[in-house]
Amino acid sequence: MSALSALPFLKPVQLRSSQSSPGGQRRHTLPASEFRCLSPEDAVSVFEIEREAFISVSGDCPLHLDEIRHFLNLCPELSLGWFEEGRLVAFIIGSLWDQDRLSQAALTLHKPRGTAVHIHVLAVHRTFRQQGKGSILMWRYLQYLRCLPFARRALLMCEDFLVPFYQKCGFKALGPCEVTVGELAFIEMQHPVRGHAFMRRNSGC
After folding, report:
1. Which of 108, 81, 107, 109 has its CA nearest to residue 93?
2. Are the C-beta atoms of residues 77 and 30 closer than 8 Å to each other?
3. Catalytic residue among 78, 80, 95, 102
4. 95 an active-site residue?
5. Is 156 a known active-site residue?
6. Which of 19, 75, 98, 156 gives the lowest tally of CB atoms within 10 Å of its CB?
7. Which helix (H) or strand (E) holds 164?
8. Cα four-point dihedral sign 137, 139, 144, 145
9. What DSSP assignment string belongs to 48-81?
10. pTM for this structure?
């Protein structure tokens, strides 16, 4: 059994049962709600959601299409997508980092021996916003990270207006981030990730 298949919060959430056809034969339906790691084939759908979510606010995207493909090829296990009936509605993309704080290089690098998960982006499709999906997805992502033996903490950077959202998700502000993008400045935030052995004893991982 693969490591991912052993994680209960990545398995499909069956909210709708299969329906029967008029002839009495059952026909297959897609899971009403499913969480899974993303693949390079999801890159275009990811970018479309991200572009709409960020360009109207900041004028740029945290990750461009080639960078999305880059991370989904290098470390797909550090991504998580929420699908409704096969359609991507929200996602997180992360990579590994090996220093205490984020630097400009963290925007494009994946450090395979790192123990900090750098969360590059969380975005929700415009028709599914204001429904709490961002908070739910982040909760599931952090639960997933707790079952990865190498993960010790999660790091992210955000603009001031998003700090309250991430604080509600359990992140603590570390102060101004070294990273800048154009004229944008960010707050760096951190969430501890408990060790693998603890989670195996306490959550069935």
Report:
1. 81
2. no
3. 95
4. yes
5. no
6. 19
7. helix 163-168
8. positive
9. HHHHHHHHHHHSS-SS-HHHHHHHHHH-GGGEEE
10. 0.82
